[in-house]
Sequence to fold (112 residues):
Amino acid sequence: MSETLVDAPEAVAAYLRARTDTDVETIVGCFAPDAVVHDEGRDHVGTEAIRAWTNGVAAAYTLTRTVRSVRSIGPATVVAVEVAGNFPGSPVVLHHHFTLTDRGIAALTICP
Fold:
């Protein structure tokens, strides 16, 4: 990923590192049991749905991710990630909006 991760909360940094390696179990372990991921117009609620979403992305695309920036905005962390791969419009910078609790990532919204 990048040196920028030193500015990210541990759960966010762990998620981003695991995404780079497509380490599904570590990715899922970063989330609270009732977490919600919103990506490509769909909500994935709970760790089983997040596991399926992660596996689906890994099966559909070959991706590289580069963290461009990390910002804290109140209780949220926003990470700009350049994503390149086998999809139309590649590369693109996607903003990952994380909401954290003491149980891990409670919500993640991914948008342009």
